[in-house]
Amino acid sequence: MTYQVYDTTLRDGAQREGISFSVVDKLAVARLLDEFGVGFIEGGWPGAVPKDTEFFRRARTELNLRHALLVAFGATRKAGVAVADDPQVRALLDAETPAIALVAKADLRHVERALRTTPAENLAMIRDTVAHLVAEGRRVFVDGEHFFDGYRTDPAYGAAVVETALDAGAEVMVLCDTNGGMLPSQVTAVITDLTARTGVGPERLGIHCQNDTACAVANTIAAVEAGVRHFQGTANGYGERPGNADLFAVVANLQLKLGIPVLPEGCLEQMVRVSHAIAEIANIAPDTHQAYAGAAAFAHKAGLHASAIKVDPLLYNHVDPAVVGNDMRILVTEMAGRASIELKSRELGLDLAGRPETLSRVTNRVKELEAGGWSFEAADASFELLVRSELPERAPAKPFTLESYRVIVEHREDGAVVSEATVKIRVRGERVIATAEGNGPVNALDEALRVGLTRHYPELRGFGLADYKVRILEGSQGTGAVTRVLVETAGAGRDWTTVGVHHNVVEASWHALVDALTYGLDRAHV
Amino acid sequence: MTYQVYDTTLRDGAQREGISFSVVDKLAVARLLDEFGVGFIEGGWPGAVPKDTEFFRRARTELNLRHALLVAFGATRKAGVAVADDPQVRALLDAETPAIALVAKADLRHVERALRTTPAENLAMIRDTVAHLVAEGRRVFVDGEHFFDGYRTDPAYGAAVVETALDAGAEVMVLCDTNGGMLPSQVTAVITDLTARTGVGPERLGIHCQNDTACAVANTIAAVEAGVRHFQGTANGYGERPGNADLFAVVANLQLKLGIPVLPEGCLEQMVRVSHAIAEIANIAPDTHQAYAGAAAFAHKAGLHASAIKVDPLLYNHVDPAVVGNDMRILVTEMAGRASIELKSRELGLDLAGRPETLSRVTNRVKELEAGGWSFEAADASFELLVRSELPERAPAKPFTLESYRVIVEHREDGAVVSEATVKIRVRGERVIATAEGNGPVNALDEALRVGLTRHYPELRGFGLADYKVRILEGSQGTGAVTRVLVETAGAGRDWTTVGVHHNVVEASWHALVDALTYGLDRAHV
């Protein structure tokens, strides 16, 4: 059995205050995690959360994962109910995933005070549910909730939970530090005692740590050093309270510090890109000081060591930043260097290798824009338009030019809130004035632009706005700060993301909308 | 010898990108650290940094520390210079602190490539400088820079550095993981090997960890478990790259998890206050998800477990939040039940326990609003207004009523983007029409409302928008989706957060702005 890298960003990570993934978000995060090479993606709780049921349904046709298997998460059967009659268990099977994670009470106090059932019935619930799901052909992981707290007060019951789950056919029994109160030495002690007491080999165990002592990563590493081969974590450590173990740091530590290869070849260097893209989707500002993945993770205040660093950078970095896709300089994003811009352009089919001057121009424009709050990490379409605007033979056609627009939002005396936008544009030599209403100012502006363009570009009818995200930068300045808007547009079987930045949310949205239409129309005409 | 809690926020912590303490800031931080009960405060590098020289000068008369001793930080003498002739060493004595920390090269590669001197001269520099300062009556700590990296490549030289420093009279030899690349098991292994090799007891050693593997806290704990009694860290883990060991988490783990008392009685519960106050001074937004000290460190998305949490909160918290001066926060979320609303209301000083009908009305309104996309998890002020509107004797006064508003955003032919808002309101019987411009539509609306209200409520001038967040819900519906706005307002030494939800971002913002002013004015009149 090799190591199992198990991600629970979409389930436990989403417990973080403020995260609210849509189904489209979840599909996008799953694709990114797969690119990072994780082995398992816990997608949610089908049956209990309607959005998660929908995620698993769409995942069947819309996800083409290369590395990861999807896992549905749920609970053992209800007390006093036959497993075959439990609709929650049924919903787990209906998710049609190859593997299922079952949460089970592993702390006697929780069995008695929260679940309010007997110790024996709790074991029966575990046994019945595992056996039922295994009989249906599923791989089953059992998450022992509050395992460490429980084991430290009553090791015999904790051991019974482990033996029951494994005897019933569970592939791995996952020891969860649900309240996050453990230290590494305590994790080691519990695993050592448990394996001695039960004879269960540590390779049948898994580990799931919360970060309430700021030791989640270290606790996970300690468990792996004790022989555990299945470890759970979340992207950027997202999760309830201080969060879960940051899967990026865990994986990097195992590969780079302990020499244990846990990801497929070529995946570790995706870390920074995947980390930042998931932060964008979660609409959480990336933590610049995050270990390995943060923009400042390898940033040095020059001063005393500047010249020494230049001579021998590895004396001042614990690892080569490139192995996790990071860079030693302080970057607004990972895109700002020539090398990464060249790489990214090539990925989009635009070869800048033989054109150093163009590459310099593009790099300078990206740097300038990033200094103003732009970010192309999650906006490939805007980035492609930017690069192509510097390549005369590939420059995208401008579908129109703007003369002016006006957007009005009124809260009227009768309480009605109405939005109306008027655009004045030139399309193929013709001056067009178009007005439309919308749910809000940006929607009205989008509608008005479409009204103005559709006669000349009927293919616009096939484009739809799929997502719209707003982030305020430099939040300490309140509504006067800069606004960054990401627009995701879908059409003709694909989707693309564009970005706009401005003091004014409407103008920022306008930039992103114009890029979205320009890119989409250009594609449609290729 | 008891444990030495050694803070280096003012020296190593200030290396964090963005931190720039003034002398007054440094004095204030020192007072706070002293209230937290640390034993040593490393104040800076006198001689090398003029601000730090000034800090030590003023500290002599302006600081009245109860628990902490001040430490001046500097380097061993220059190569080839007599210690008595080294002005940098002289400046350390001139700082007139009872203790001095000396940084010394402990990795042979750094001696040769960065310092460019011989291994023997480096040892002589350590010996001479320590002996000189001890002869002048100072307690001396030696920080062995890059100690772990050096020891793992050449243990004999690392051992020689340790023996040289201690033989010359250093009180403690501090082992520094300067590049932050260690894991706990590696820290343990090096300390075990070092003490065996040299016969030096671990109680003569100190530990200083950086967080590049996300293990700085765990590494520090591992060193203490190996017998080390002097540990360094910074407030909130501030420091270069991913930062230093968070001294708050280290101390809490030692006291609460390992039962080692390291702070004076009554100090641990100052943690949250001191942590947040230092963040304010550093002008860094407190990390809500920080272990122990974060606002969300004990925040539970109630729902399913609310009733169990009410019965037995310690089953769901790894420690009692009060011991570190924190609170258990219940997040009112999607799955809000009566129990969590009652709990949350009690937290806000509103007792609904004896008023089941009111509790039902509030619960129903919250459920209804949450179904429509509202979320009160981060908007305590809006939640309080909602509950109080159901309590006749506590109902907040409405500062005005709205007749209508209108917001216009124009992108003009000359490229200028302008926002203008007009509000028509009734204030204390008077009809007021007010117009203002702003950076964007919401800013213009906020300005217009303030213009209209300020004559009646001059205290409004003291309120400022501290943060503004926008989230689009149900992203798959694009700009037609619901928009949720969170507004954070600051005034009169506190801040509060309000929420608004609507299809239209302007109307959503309006709701949040009105709640913010209503709450703030109500507080101002209490």
TrEMBL record, chains A, B:
InterPro entries: 2-isopropylmalate_synth_dimer, AIPM/Hcit_synth_CS, Aldolase_TIM, Citramal_synthase, LeuA/HCS_post-cat, LeuA_allosteric_dom_sf, PYR_CT. Pathway: Amino-acid biosynthesis; L-isoleucine biosynthesis; 2-oxobutanoate from pyruvate: step 1/3. It catalyses: pyruvate + acetyl-CoA + H2O = (3R)-citramalate + CoA + H(+). Its EC number is 2.3.3.21. It is an enzyme of class 2 (transferase). GO terms for biological process: isoleucine biosynthetic process; L-leucine biosynthetic process. Residues 3-272 form the Pyruvate carboxyltransferase domain. CDD domains: DRE_TIM_LeuA3 (cd07941). The keyword Chloroplast does not apply. Keywords: Amino-acid biosynthesis, Branched-chain amino acid biosynthesis, Isoleucine biosynthesis, Transferase. This is Citramalate synthase. It comes from Micromonospora pallida. The keyword Amino-acid biosynthesis applies.
